[in-house]
Amino acid sequence: MAKIYFFFIPIVLIWCLTSCNQGDTIIESDVSTEEKDTTDLILNLSIKPLDMAVGYGNIYSCKVVEAEKGFVEDTLLSVVIIGSENEKDSVFHQASISGYMLKAGFEKYREDEPYRMMPIDGFVDADNTSWKISWIEPIRMK
Questions:
Q1: What is the DSSP string of 41-66?
Q2: At a CB cut-off of 8 Å and minimum separation 6, what does 7 contact?
Q3: Beta partners for 101?
Q4: Which of 141, 117, 140 is nearest to 131 (CA)?
């Protein structure tokens, strides 16, 4: 009988950690209008569940639903979030499991990046320009 528990309990724990909706814990927006005005790129993103983790953080596959400001050619982005125990990662993770979309502001970081994934909170586009997240807010579905 004890063998069944050792097999069953880890499966239930993994299921709860990955599938159970832990309530509406997405942070409310405290982004000022001034911050939004000075942002280079504003994207509305649909977040897929956690794609993978690398040694320095988590990678989320994000579909660009709309570019409110600026332009990127990519319709799918690999957004890197440095570390897994921070507010940005919590927001991305909650959005990925709850179905919320995110509005994110990005600042141009560097051009001619040597790799498609760099250790920054952000992404590298098709032109090898890196974009760093400056703010994030949830988009509430109506």
A1: EEEEEEEPS--EEETTEEEEEEEEEE
A2: none
A3: 46, 139
A4: 117
Please state the φ and ψ torsions of residue 58, each to the nearest 5 degrees. Answer: -110, 150
Residue 48 is classified by DSSP as P
Show Cβ contacts of residue 98 under 8 Å, excluding neighbours closer than 6 positions: 21, 24, 26
Q: Show pLDDT as tens, one digit a residue, over the chain (142 residues).
A: 455 444 444 443 343 334 443 434 444 456 666 667 779 999 999 999 877 888 888 999 999 999 999 999 999 999 999 987 789 999 999 999 988 899 999 999 999 999 988 889 999 999 999 999 999 999 976 5
Question: pTM higher than 0.85, yes or no?
Answer: no
Structural contact between residues 134 and 107, judged by C-beta atoms closer than 8 angstroms: yes
